[in-house]
Amino acid sequence: MAERPPTTTEKQPATPAPKPLRADAQRNRDKLVEVAAQAFATDGVDASLEEIARQAEVGIGTLYRHFPTREHLVEIVYRREVEALCLAAEELARDHPADVALELWMQRFVDYIATKRGLATSLRILLTTNSTLFSDTSGRVSQALKRLVEAAAAAGTIRADVDASDVLHALGGIYSAPNTPDWRDRSGRLVKLLMDGLRFGATKASKPPR
Questions:
Q1: What integer best gives the mean pLDDT of the chain?
Q2: I need a surface site. Which of 9, 35, 38, 150 has the fewest CB within 10 A?
Q3: Residue 20: pLDDT above 90?
Q4: What is the pLDDT of residues 37-91, one digit of tens each?
Q5: What DSSP line would sit under 81-103, residue for residue?
Q6: DSSP structure class, residue 206
Q7: Diameter over CA atoms, the chain
Q8: pLDDT digits (tens, 9 = 90+) for 113-126
Q9: Burial (Cβ within 10 Å: 0-12, 13-18, ≥19) of residue 62
Q10: Which residues lie below 8 Å from residue 48, measured CB to CB, with a gap of 6+?
C-alpha cells in the first residue's frame, strides 16, 4: 500500500539546529569575515582568498571549511555589513543628538557602499541564485535611515520637509561615482554637503560633529 502523505495536523520531523561552533572556531570565522570585508572593499570581489586567510592568521583550509565557495563568503560579508549598519543607527541615535547621529551614520554608509561596490559582481550573481539574501535584507537600511531622519526632523535640527527616500537617493549617487583613488575622501565631503543642506532652514540650530 502506498504511503499516505502526512496531514497538516501531523507533526513533521524537526530540522536539527546547526551545531554551535567552538569558541576558537567562532573567533576564526569572525576574523575571516572581518578581513574579507576590508579586502573586498579595497580590492573588489576578486581579492585573494589566500591573502584573506593569511591576514586572518588561519590556513586556507580553515577558510574553506567555513566558506566552501567565494559566493558563500560574499553572502556572509554582505549580511554582516547590513547588520552592522542597522545596529549603528540604533547606537548613534542613543549616544548623540539626532542630527549628529544622522551625519555619523551617513559617513558609515560610505564604508558600507565601499564594501558593496567591491562585492558588486558576486551580488549580481547571488541576486539570481539566492532569493532569500535580498528578501531578508531589503528595506532594513532604508528603515534605519528613515528613523534617523524623522528623529532629526522632529528635534528641529534638520528641515521638517525632508523625505528619507530622497536622502537615500542622494546617498546612492555615491555608489555610482567613478572609483578614483580619492573616492572615499570625496564621498565624505559629499555627505557633509548633504548635511549642510538638510540643516539649512532647520528650526533649531545644532552644532555639527567635529
A1: 84
A2: 9
A3: no
A4: 889 888 887 889 999 999 999 999 999 999 998 888 988 998 898 999 999 999 9
A5: HHHHHHHHHHHHHHHS-HHHHHH
A6: -
A7: 79
A8: 888 888 877 777 77
A9: middle
A10: 39
- Cα separation values, 177 from 78, 122, 174, 186, Å: 20, 19, 5, 10
**Distance of alpha carbon 184 from alpha carbon 179, whole angstroms:** 9
Q: Which CATH architecture fits 71-199? A: Orthogonal Bundle (1.10)
Alpha helix positions (H), the chain: 23-43, 49-55, 60-66, 70-95, 98-118, 120-129, 131-137, 140-154, 164-175, 183-199
Between CA 119 and CA 133 the distance in angstroms is 14
pTM of the model: 0.76
pLDDT digits (tens, 9 = 90+) for 22-33: 778 889 999 999
Work out the end-to-end distance of the chain between its first and last CA atoms, rounded to an integer number of angstroms: 77
